[in-house]
Amino acid sequence: MLDFRMDTFLAVCRCMNFTKAAEELNITQPAVSHHIHYLEEHYQVKLFKYSGKKIGLTEAGRMLLSAATTMQHDELHLKQALKMSDGGGRRLVFGATMTVGEYVLPEALMRLMDAQPDISVKMVVADTQDLLKSLDEGEIEFAVVEGFFQKKEYDFLVYDRGKFVIVASPEYQFHSEGKVIEDLTQERFFIREPGSGTRYVFERYLEGKNLLIHDFEDLMEISNIGAIKSLVADGRGITFLYEAAVKKELEDGRLRRVELEDFELSHDFTFIWRKDSIYSEYYRELYRLLRGE
Fold first, then answer.
1. Three-state DSSP class for 57?
2. What phi, psi does 287 have (nearest 5°)?
3. Which region holds residue 133: left if phi is over 0, alpha if psi is between -120 and 50, else beta?
4. pLDDT reading at 281 higher than 60
C-alpha cells in the first residue's frame, strides 16, 4: 500500500495544482503542501518547480512519479497474489486493444485456462491511451496493445506482428482501377475512430505517401470492427484492417484483398507492463505462457 503522502504526490502530479489535488483527496491545501514538503525533505530534492501560479515537475519529480506509478501498478499484482496465497483462485486483470482482444488473444487465453484451470480472467478492451492510463493507475496488471507508448515508461516484449490488408467485397465496383493507395481516394472508405491503433498506423502510412486520411472523399468512421466488416461485405465500401480481423471472411470469400503495388504494411502487438516492476519476471513468464512457448 502506498504511503498516503505518495498518494498526495500522485494527485498533485495529476492536477498540477495544490488546491485541486486537495479537493480530489478531500483534505486541506496546507495538508497537501505538508505532504509534499515531507517527501522533499525525505528524498533531499525539490519535486516541483514554480513559474508564477503554474507548477511543473523537476527531473527528480519526474523520476519519483515514474517510480510511484510503478509501485501503484505493482500493488494490484500484490493484492491478487495475497488472495491466492489465502486459498483464493488466481485472478488475472489485464487490457487489450480491440483487434488484439477480439482476434489475437482468445486462443492464448484458452491455453492459459488449460494450464491453470482455477484462474479467473478479466480482460479490459479499450484503445491504447486508455489502457496506458489504467496501467499507470494500477487498474490492470499488463496490456497487449497495437498503438504508440512511451518506451521509457514501460517494459515490453513484442507479442506478435500483425499484417494489414485493404479489403472489399468480391462484387464491389471500384470507381477506377487501383494500382497505388492514392487511386483509392475516390472510394467510400470505412475507418476506425480517432485513438484506435489501426487508424494510427494507417495515418502514419498515408503520411509516408504524402496523403492524409481526409484525402479520401467519402470517409466513414465506425468504432466497431464487426460493423465495418458487415458493411464492406455488403459492398458499401472498402476498409483497412489487420489481416487477423478478417481472416475468416477472406477464407469464406465474403471479402477479398485489394492488391496494390505500394502497399505492404505490418505492425507489432506489444505486451507491456510498468517499467522496473518488481514482478517483471512474472510478466515475462506469463508472456511466454500466452504465446505457447
1. strand
2. -55, -45
3. alpha
4. yes
SS3 content of the chain, % helix, strand, coil (to 5): 45, 20, 30
Q: What cell was used for 159?
A: 507479442
Residue 18 φ/ψ, nearest 5 degrees: -65, -40
Cα–Cα distance, 70 to 273 (Å, whole number): 9
Helices (H), the chain: 4-15, 18-25, 29-43, 59-85, 98-99, 105-115, 128-136, 197-208, 225-233, 247-251, 280-291
Rounded Cα distance, 135 and 128, in Å: 10
pTM of the full structure: 0.74
C-alpha grid cell for residue 44?
Answer: 533531499
93 contacts: CB under 8 Å, gap ≥ 6: 76, 80, 122, 124, 139, 140, 141
222 in Cβ contact with 238 (< 8 Å): no
Reading the block at residue 85, the C-alpha cell is 496465497
| pLDDT over 70 (residue 217) | yes
Confidence of residue 159 (pLDDT cuts 50, 70, 90): very high
Q: Of residues 239 and 72, which shows the higher confidence score?
A: 239
Backbone angles phi, psi at 147, to 5 degrees: -95, -175
Q: Determine how β-strand 188-191 pairs with β-strand 238-242.
A: parallel
Q: Write the CB contacts of 218 (distance below 8 Å, at least 6 apart in sequence).
A: 186, 187, 188, 189, 237
SS3 per residue for 112-138: HHHHCCCCEEEEEECCHHHHHHHHHCC
Q: Which three cell numbers stand for residue 176?
A: 477506377
Grid cell of 127 as nine digits: 484503445
For 41, list phi and psi in degrees, rounded to 5: -70, -40
C-alpha distances (whole Å) from 108 to each of 103, 105, 268, 289 are: 10, 5, 17, 8
